[in-house]
Each structure stands twice: as structure tokens, then as C-alpha cells.
Amino acid sequence: MAVRHCLIKAGPQTVWSVLADGTRYADWVVGTASSRPVRGTWPQEGAAIGYEVRLGPVSLTNETVVRRCEEGSVLELEAKAGWLGTARIALELRPWGEHCLVLVDEHPLRGAGGRLHNAGTEALIQLRHRAMLARLARLCEAEERAAHGGDAAGHGARTGVGAPGDAHA
Length: 169
Description:
The chain contains four helices and eight strands, in the order βααββββββααβ. By secondary structure, it is an alpha+beta fold.
């Protein structure tokens, strides 16, 4: 399973507000060009957003469904990717002093993605998570700066692999 974490220099409430806005999904999820509500109220369990992935002139439309939501701390999603199958993506928010430690855990559930899952695809997922968490950090930290008058100089995000205590960067 691809597990990665990132210390975001923003409070958990700020991070949750970004995750809880389904219209901002494409702002932090790598490879997603746009997102829109499909059913339910995001991020309530069972709610779904549709999103578009563009690969050159080709556009693919997919859907992500909320499978579990503990407001402010846990969001578990099932991302559907057509013939590639589905993947479980779990995001956990932990207060870390005045900041937020975000853990993401993803693994394929069904379809070709599950059958073809190996160390190579795991490495690609890790790269995607690094970029995704960096995007999420930029959004949340900018929002935090705007809310507090812009005094967050020098507050960049650190990403790492493994458990929160690991020294990976």
C-alpha cells in the first residue's frame, strides 16, 4: 500500500475545509482537470463528484465516492477509473501543534489496477502522492495566510514516506 504523509503549516480546520469542498478536488488531486458534484452533499458518505482527466486531446470522465467520513479528521474515498478499476484513498488529518499532519493511504480495489498492482505501480503512486500532498499544502497554507493576514513566511510543506516518525523527506 502506498502510504505517505505531509506536515501542512495550517490548522486541521483549514485542511478539512479544502478537502470538504468537492469543487476544489481538481485543485489538489494530480491528473484531474475539473470536478463537479454528481450526487449527495460532499463529503457526506455516499456523495460523489465527477471529474475529468485530460491526456492530450483525450478526456476521460470518472467519479469519486465518499465511503467514510469523520468530519474534520477522516475522509475515505473510492476513485473509479473506468477499465482500470477502483482504488481506496484514505486521508487522515492529525493535529500537530498548530499545524496538520496529513496521511494518505491508497491501494487498488478492483479491475486492472488491482490485478496489475506491483512495486512499479506502487512507486508511481508514491510520486503522485508527493505531488498531490504538495498541492494540498500550497492551497491550505495560502488559505491560512489569507485568514491570518499573510504572516506565514518560511512555512513550506514537508512530505515523507512511511509513518509520521520516520525521517524521510
